[in-house]
Amino acid sequence: MFTCPVKNSLSEEFCEQLACIEGIISQYQDCHIVLCGDFNVDFCRVWPHTDMLNEFCIKLDLCASTRHAKNDIDYTYNFAMKRFNSLDHFIMSSVLFDSAVDDVRVQHDVENLSDHDPIIIRFSLSSNIFTATNKICQEKVAWHKCTDADFIAYCNTLSTLLKDVHLPVDAIQCRNRLCVNNEHVTCIHKYAKDLTEARLMAAESALPKTTFSQSKRKPGWNEFLRPAHEKSLFWHNIWSTAGRPKTGILADIMRRTGSV
C-alpha cells in the first residue's frame, strides 16, 4: 500500500502535483494505492480543482472515500464555525473502494487546535504479514539530569577503566602512511574498541538513565489554560448534545469559547 499526503494551492501547482503523484503510482502498478491529505477540494463544489481531481481519479482508476456508501463525514474543515467544507479525503484504488472499506469517519475533537479535523478510514484486508509487538524501552543517558557530581564520577570511573586498556605503542608510532602490517591494523581496531567500551561502561555506571513513562498527558494545556479548557469542554458537550448546530446561540458560544 502506498500513501502520499497532498496539499495544493494554485491550479498550475495542483496539476504539477497530480502529475508527480501519477509518476510515482506508475512505479507501483502491482500495489494498492491510498492517497490521503488536504486536497483543498470539496467534491460538492463546482471548482476547477474539482474537475482536475475527478479526471485524475478516472484516469488512474481511483475512487474518493467521500463517495463511499459507508462515508459518515459531515465536514473536515471549518472557518470560525461559519463555513464548512470537506477538503480532506482518502483516495484509493477501486478494488479497495469496492471490497475493503469498513467505514470512513471524521473526529471532531474539542482539543484539536487546527481548523482541519482528522479523518479515519478502516479497511478489512486479509493479510498475515503484519505483526504487532509491545514497545521496547531502551535506556539512554539522561543528559538533562546530569549534575557536576555525575560528571566527576564519570571521569573518575573512566580513568580507572582506561588503566586496563593496552596502548599499542608500535602501531601508534608507525609513520608509514602506506603501512600494510596486519598486526598494526588489528591493534588499532582493538584499541578503538576498548576505548569505546570503557566510555560506555563508565557512563552506564556513573550517569543517570532515562526511564519509561506511560504518561498520556496531552501538550497544549497547563494550569493557566485549564479554566478555559474546562469551559470549552463544557460548551462543546452541550453543542454536541444539541446536534452540532452550525448557526444560532450555541454555535456563537462555541466560537467565543474557542472550542473549534
Low-confidence stretches: none
Mean pLDDT, to the nearest integer, reads 84
CATH class (first level) name of the largest domain? Alpha Beta
The helix-and-strand class reads alpha/beta
Order of helices and strands: EHEHEEEEEHEEHHHHH
Helix fraction bin: 40-55%
The coarse overall form would be extended
Q: Determine the CATH superfamily of the largest domain.
A: Endonuclease/exonuclease/phosphatase
Radius of gyration: 29 Å
- Please tally the helical runs, counting DSSP H or I stretches of 4 or more residues: 8
Question: β content, as a range?
Answer: 15-25%
CATH topology of the largest domain: Deoxyribonuclease I, Chain A
Number of strands: 9
Task: Sum up the structure in keywords.
15% strand; 3 domains; alpha/beta; 4-stranded mixed beta sheet; Deoxyribonuclease I, Chain A; 260 residues; 3-stranded mixed beta sheet; extended
How would you sum up this structure, described in words?
With 260 residues, the chain is α/β, with parallel strands linked by helices. It folds into 3 domains: 2-123, Deoxyribonuclease I, Chain A (4-Layer Sandwich), CATH 3.60.10; 143-206, no CATH class; 226-257, no CATH class. It has 8 helices and 9 strands. The strands form 3 sheets. The chain has a 4-stranded mixed beta sheet with strand order 1-2-7-3. The longest helix is centred in the C-terminal third of the chain and has 25 residues, at 182-206. The protein starts with a strand and ends with a helix. The relative contact order is 0.09.
